[in-house]
Amino acid sequence: MTKSYDAVIIGGGHNGLVCAFYLARAGYKVRILERRNVVGGATVTEEFHPGFRNSTASYTVSLLNPKVIADMKLADHGYRVIERPISNFLPQPDGSYLKLGGGLERTQAEFARFSAKDAAALPAYYATLEVVADVLRDMVLKSPPNVGDGLSMIVDALKQGRRIAGLSIEQQRDALDLFTKSARSFLDSWFESDAVKAAFGFDAVVGNYASPDTPGSAYVLLHHVFGEVNGKKGAWGHCVGGMGAITQIMARVVTTIGVEISLEAPVDRVLVDGARAVGVRLESGEEVMGKAVIANVGPKLLYEQMMAPADLPADFVKRIRAFKAGSGTFRMNVALSALPDFTCLPGVGEHHQSGIILAPTLDYMDRAFMDAKRDGWSKAPIVEMLIPSIVDASLAPEGCHVASLFCQQFAPELPDGRSWDDEREAAADCIIATVEMAAPGFASGVIARQIHSPLDLERKFGLVGGDIMHGLLSLDQMWAARPVLGHGAYRGPVKGLYMCGAGTHPGGGVTGAPGHNAAREVLRDGAVFGRLWRRR
Known about the structure:
This protein is an alpha/beta fold. Helix content is 36%, strand content 20%. It is built from 16 helices and 20 strands. Strands 1, 2, 11, 12, 13, 14 and 20 form a seven-stranded mixed beta sheet that branches. A seven-stranded mixed beta sheet has the order 7-6-16-17-18-15-19, sandwiched between helices. α1 runs parallel beside α10 (244-256) and α3 packs antiparallel against α4. The longest helix is centred in the N-terminal third of the chain and has 25 residues, at 116-140. 54% of the residues are buried.
């Protein structure tokens, strides 16, 4: 028997749950179809070794939008984030280290050990980023102007452009620099110390298969600073219970207002009838009909694997084939018998609660990318390690710990026909060895490890090319052009089809913004459709 709903959502990741919440709150009958046996998409907590649990893919909190948190009343249901005392800790090749965060004065004191000039420049740098970040924050919950919509597009563009136009000419130049320059070029204009530039430049390559010398990489740096934790702008933190606690809470919230969640329900095909999406067919053969079909999967997966080319405009098919996906990410979780002990800063300290960055200079990051381009993966990779169990005892047995290893510069596809199935273990060994160089004894403390190569990320979470952002955050794939110009306002090229995932504005990260914004457009279209129907 075929069931029909007001909205059918493909994928139970956090954006799908957020979208379902706003639709159900408005009275829609909603069903979420999740192919895995757990809701949450890439925002999940899993036990990967007996007694050891960790955030499996996404691993830290900052970008989750405050409006979403408030509207869904997540805090009332147990959502709790522990802030990092400092943002990042960067061991240096000469045996020194740099700490970033903990307040302006503390960071200036750290910078002064490397460059008095850089310490003096820091307040103006932060102020510049904050001005542009505020513009982005203002745009996050707004749908981009949809090119091709005539007067409404012009009005939307003028409204959203007003914030930029209201900036001083100097601030507009800063914004242009951040949107177009490479991270190195931008940071070179501010700082002289290699360590200081690396501390900021790391954000430019997170989830970005690119060099810090790549034009446009400065924006990715900015993309990671416009969030907040517990009301503190730019802060990052650990969600108690791991990232899966967020989506489990969201799932409880939406089911209490009537949303149906079906697990182990992989979608095979979006059904199109008369140039309109009317539902989906599951791999089981079951058909689920919906007045709106909303995809919380990436554009590459939706349009190249779940839809027939004949159901899409020819030029759109061409554009999606050219849509760039592949974040160069290799993700590991490790069970540890003890905390790592760093040569440059021995003993237990606040640095264990921070993002531990093993990428001491921009040159190191550039070499890692060039090696990956040539060989498939870098033998000196970029590694960020977080140890959430130091503040959340629920994740590991007493005396033990879990660590997230988020690693960059691993090609989505290996050259010469090689497969990640054959090289994932060697790459994991290389990552462990990279940490071992900074913290001798780390390797011997590894009890177990969970490995996710780019191919594993694609198979497990549907992230094509292992892309955690559902598509590169390049200038040609942002805002109104994400994923394709003319379809930047969450509507697909077929009537009744919508997108609510990270492949839409404002992009990746656990933000909830695409889900929030897509729901608004579905409701807007539903209201118009209802009025037209009643007039017939």
